[in-house]
């Protein structure tokens, strides 16, 4: 960036030098050392005092006037040039200032950008921190929630287990009661010891036998009949009041195989 | 959160109800060996037939077997005679498993039409909403119709009992079988009269085969049910005869000097085991009935008697006092080797194999009978003895061909000898009706083809 302004700067200096040199040499070409336009009228005055030949003088005067005019023109040119140069310089300065300002502006922009970036970074960092915190919070929350759920689950499980245990206890109890109710009605004999039949039994909620079906016949119609009759004759069967436990007995399978035959 | 909980509850719901996916399964391993309750509804009978009440005969038959708590229904409330008149709920409330209904209609020419049905009070499959007017065939196990003359009414009734018995128990009934026995009348001052008799299994319809003024002993059925072997003293000395009860023809088998006794037909009917002493100790012989050849089986110096064939005819049970007291032995006919079968009690005799071959029926006396002679069954697997008769003194036990009942001579002090029956489980005991005099030495016939 500096280089960009350096070249016009140097060029401006070089231009000044050249202008000065040019001014210097133009002065040395003239016979009159006066370079100051203010000094010329004094010289004219001095010359007047020593008058020789009017013509000559007139010539001289003309010449002088010519010289003066030339000088004046030169002076004017120089002045114009100087003004030009000054303008130029001024422009140059302005330009430099402008450049500087631009640089400055740029610098400021840069700084601003930098600041902005920093700010953004900070903001990001802040956001990140916030997010992290939030995440952490959320995780914590989730963990807490999970824990709660687990607790709830455990509680539910415990409840379910307790309920299942209660139901299972009832089912077991009524299993035994039902078998005890049916067996005295089941008439079998020793010849039927190796037989076995499977029944499907449907009960009403009061234990009344609604339906008995032979699901798996023993192969002996007599034996199957004895089993079916035993169930019907035991109606109503003892059943639990608890609806959940009763549901187990709504329809159940009963295998009858006379391993043990009581004589009566 | 809420949704999560709901899902949790749902899951637990499944867990709780999961056992209901698998149907509850109960196993009953105990039953009772008792008589099956059944009701016999008095048959509709337009004209009474003297001496034959079909319902009562069926009731008695089924009751006698020991398998049924059979009773003739005496209610006027429910008297169905046809299947369509059955009120199943009523009979279920009576606690019976089966109902027998029927009718006897008098036709022209002394003919009767008998119809009956055996009904299972509990159906195998209920049909909810079924029209009660529509006869549910699953209830009806038997539904039959017969036309017979008056004389065949009683045999037909026994036949119906057989059908019912077989339908319910799966075994052949013995209500159409016969008994052979000896009756002795002691009219004063005339000499005693001995009769070889045949009657229905229940003692009804007695018919003489042989009448003699001398003792008759040991009747034994041939496997064909048409011949009887027996010992007759009609020539003052014992001799063994075979009578054909259909043709009345008679054949002398043996009249050796000394004892000729205890004839027993082999299962194939071509051989007869007998006991001969030939003037020395009684021993067992086998008479070939087609060739007349005699083969000696035992050569004992003790008393050896009462041979009875094994089911495979390869060995004989017999009684011997070679051990000091009468006990039952089994001799292998091929090897001639014998083994003692009874060890419990101081008197075991008159042994025979039960039709299933699992036990020995015998006359037993021991501490378990308090010194009485009793009918008993010895289990061949365990050798345990089950005493079946508790009253009086028993003699000559003989088993029905289905093994369900045993007939024997019951002797009670101060009373005539009579025929008695006990079911093989000891549940039912009864005495058979008899004419005047003693009745003894019953022998149960095989199944009779008729």
CATH topology of the domain at 166-256 in chain A: Fusion Protein Consisting Of Minor Coat Protein, Glycine Rich Linker, Tola, And A His Tag, Chain: A, Domain 2
* Main sheet record of chain A: 3 strands, antiparallel
Mean pLDDT of chain A: 82
Count of domain modules of chain B:
2
Largest interface: A-B, 54 and 40 residues
Succession of helices and strands of chain A = HHHEEHHE
Largest sheet of chain B: 6 strands, mixed
Q: Do you know the CATH architecture of the domain at 166-256 in chain A? A: 2-Layer Sandwich
Folded structure, characterized:
The complex is a heterodimer of chains A (264) and B (450). Chain A is rod-shaped. Chain A is mainly α. Chain A is 71% helix and 11% strand. The longest helix of chain A is centred in the middle third of the chain and has 129 residues. Chain A has a domain of 91 residues: Fusion Protein Consisting Of Minor Coat Protein, Glycine Rich Linker, Tola, And A His Tag, Chain: A, Domain 2, CATH 3.30.1150. Chain B has two domains: 126 residues, 3-Layer(aba) Sandwich (Rossmann fold); 267 residues, Neuraminidase, CATH 2.120.10.30. In chain B, strands 2, 3, 4, 5, 6 and 7 form a six-stranded mixed β-sheet that branches. Chain B has a four-stranded antiparallel β-sheet with strand order 10-9-8-31, with no helix packed on it. The chains are: A mainly alpha (264), B mainly beta (450). At the A-B interface, helix 3, strand 2, helix 4, helix 5 and strand 3 of A face helix 1 and strand 1 of B.
């Amino acid at each position: 960036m500096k280089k960009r302004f350096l070249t016009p700067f140097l060029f401006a200096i070089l231009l000044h030098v050249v202008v000065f040199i040019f001014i210097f040499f133009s002065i040395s070409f003239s016979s009159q050392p006066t370079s100051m336009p203010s000094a010329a009228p004094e010289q004219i005055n001095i010359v007047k005092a020593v008058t020789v030949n009017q013509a000559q003088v007139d010539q001289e005067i003309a010449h002088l006037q010519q010289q003066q005019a030339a000088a004046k023109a030169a002076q004017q040119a120089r002045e114009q040039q100087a003004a030009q140069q000054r303008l130029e310089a001024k422009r140059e300065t302005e330009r430099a200032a402008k450049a500087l300002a631009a640089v400055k502006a740029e610098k400021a922009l840069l700084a601003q950008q930098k600041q902005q970036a920093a700010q953004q970074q900070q903001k990001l960092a802040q956001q990140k921190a916030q997010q992290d915190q939030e995440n952490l919070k959320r995780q914590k929350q989730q963990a807490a929630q999970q824990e709660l759920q687990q607790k709830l689950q455990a509680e539910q499980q415990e409840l379910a287990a307790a309920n299942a245990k209660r139901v299972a206890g009832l089912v077991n109890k009524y299993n035994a009661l039902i078998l005890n109710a049916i067996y005295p009605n089941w008439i079998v004999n020793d010849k039927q010891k190796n037989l076995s039949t499977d029944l499907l039994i449907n009960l009403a909620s009061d234990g009344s036998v609604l339906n008995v079906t032979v699901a798996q016949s023993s192969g002996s119609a007599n034996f199957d009949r004895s089993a079916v009759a035993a169930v019907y004759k035991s109606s109503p069967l003892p059943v639990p009041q608890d609806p959940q436990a009763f549901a187990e007995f709504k329809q159940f399978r009963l295998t009858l195989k006379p391993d043990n035959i009581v004589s009566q | 959160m809420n949704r999560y909980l709901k899902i949790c509850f749902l899951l637990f719901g499944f867990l709780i109800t999961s056992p209901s996916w698998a149907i509850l399964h109960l196993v009953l391993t105990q039953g009772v060996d008792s008589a099956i309750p059944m009701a016999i509804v008095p048959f509709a009978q337009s004209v009474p037939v003297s001496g034959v009440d079909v319902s009562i005969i069926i009731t008695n038959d089924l009751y006698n077997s020991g398998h049924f708590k059979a009773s003739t229904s005496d209610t006027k409330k429910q008297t169905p005679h046809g299947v369509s008149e059955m009120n199943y709920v009523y009979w279920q409330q009576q606690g019976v498993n089966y109902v027998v209904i029927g009718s006897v209609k008098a036709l022209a020419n002394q003919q009767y039409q008998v119809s009956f049905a055996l009904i299972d009070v509990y159906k195998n499959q209920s049909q909810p909403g079924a029209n009660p007017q529509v006869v549910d065939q699953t209830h009806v196990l038997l539904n039959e119709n017969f036309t017979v003359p008056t004389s065949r009414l009683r045999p037909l009734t026994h036949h119906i009992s057989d059908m019912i018995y077989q339908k319910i128990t799966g075994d052949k009934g013995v209500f159409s079988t016969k008994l052979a026995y000896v009756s002795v009348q002691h009219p004063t001052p005339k000499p005693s009269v001995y009769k070889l008799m045949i009657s229905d299994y229940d003692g009804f319809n007695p018919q003489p085969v042989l009448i003699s003024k001398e003792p008759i002993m040991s009747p034994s059925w041939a496997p064909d049910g048409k011949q009887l072997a027996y010992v007759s003293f009609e020539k003052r000395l014992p001799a063994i005869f075979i009578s054909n009860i259909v043709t009345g023809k008679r054949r002398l088998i043996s009249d050796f000097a000394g004892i000729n006794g205890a004839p027993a037909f082999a299962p194939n009917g071509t051989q007869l085991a007998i006991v001969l002493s030939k003037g020395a100790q009684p021993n067992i012989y086998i008479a070939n009935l087609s060739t007349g050849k005699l083969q000696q089986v035992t050569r004992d110096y003790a008393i050896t008697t009462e041979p009875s064939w094994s089911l495979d005819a390869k060995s004989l049970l017999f009684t011997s006092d070679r051990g000091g007291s009468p006990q039952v032995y089994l001799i292998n006919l091929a090897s001639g080797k014998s083994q003692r079968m009874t060890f419990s009690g101081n008197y075991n005799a008159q042994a025979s194999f039960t039709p299933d071959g699992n036990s020995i029926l015998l006359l037993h006396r021991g501490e378990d009978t308090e010194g009485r002679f009793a009918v008993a069954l010895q289990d061949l697997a365990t050798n345990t003895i089950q005493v079946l008769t508790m009253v009086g003194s028993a003699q000559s036990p003989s088993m029905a061909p289905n093994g369900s009942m045993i007939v024997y001579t019951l002797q009670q002090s101060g009373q005539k000898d009579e025929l008695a029956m006990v079911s093989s489980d000891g549940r039912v005991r009864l005495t058979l009706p008899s004419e005047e005099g003693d009745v003894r030495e019953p022998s149960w016939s095989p199944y009779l083809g008729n």
